[in-house]
Design brief:
- The complex is a heterodimer of chains A (119) and B (107).
- Chain A is mainly β and 119 residues long.
- Chain A has no helices and 11 strands.
- Chain B contains no helices and 11 strands.
- In chain B, strand 5 and strand 6 form a beta hairpin.
- Helix content of chain B is 0%, strand content 50%.
- Classes of the chains: A mainly beta (119), B mainly beta (107).
């Protein structure tokens, strides 16, 4: 059974750094893309970017370029989303999702990680 | 970036009735259109892809249609578990973009 299990909720102060994770199981992690999607409270879904763990090919949506860093460690079947300096506007639920291509629909989703950045 | 517009924002329907949700793209996305269902406190779930192909586990009462810029998700006879928010997504061009969602509520 394909599963994506995300790390737990985080509460941070603006300006702090953060790295959240998404661990895949039940399939060959290196051969599927992992996307990160943001959902602010009461708002729609936004694609942040996507990574192919097999060769670390990474692409960012223009709105998020330079704002976050996506990475993956295929040896532990885990993808990461990180911020060097959080802003209050980064407060949101973050989902990872598996996809077969860089421009494709998202077949399986993680349970989400709630990030709260507040002083 | 392709803008996806869903209508209506909220749809109130009686259980057992038919629901029709619309999604329009700002430019043609061919048939590269997916629908997702999201219930409160849960992650989105893929329902339909390729504009009309049901994902594994999607009941037959869900059907998708359309092409180009205009798409429709139809739920033929609403069950209690179908009341949720529905999002369309285009995956024809990078970056993939989502509509604002239609909230389907019990009348």
């Amino acid at each position: 059974e394909v599963q994506l299990v995300q790390s737990g909720a985080e509460v941070k102060k603006p300006g702090e750094s953060l790295k959240i994770s998404c661990k895949g199981s039940g399939y060959t992690f290196a051969t599927y893309w992992i996307a990160w999607v943001r959902q602010k409270p009461g708002e729609a879904l936004e694609l942040i970017g996507i990574i192919y763990p097999g060769d670390a090919d990474t692409r960012y949506s223009p709105s998020f370029q330079g704002q976050v860093t996506i990475s993956a460690d295929k040896s532990i079947s885990t993808a990461f989303l990180q911020w060097s300096s959080l802003k209050g506007s980064d407060t949101a639920m973050y989902y990872c999702a598996r996809t077969v291509g860089p421009i494709y629909h998202f077949e399986f989703w993680g349970q989400g990680t709630l990030v709260t950045a507040s002083s | 970036e392709i803008v996806m517009t869903q209508s209506p924002a909220t749809l109130s329907v009686f259980p057992g009735e038919r629901a029709t949700l619309s999604c329009r793209a700002s430019q043609s996305v061919s048939g590269d259109l997916a629908w997702y269902q999201q219930k409160p406190g849960q992650a989105p779930r893929l329902l339909i892809y390729g504009e009309s192909t049901r994902a594994t586990g999607t009941p037959a009462r869900f059907s998708g249609s359309g092409s180009g810029t205009q798409f429709t998700l139809t739920i033929s006879s609403l069950q209690s578990e179908d009341f949720a928010v529905y999002y369309c997504q285009q995956y024809n061009k990078w970056p993939q973009t989502f509509g604002q969602g239609t909230k389907l509520e019990i009348k």
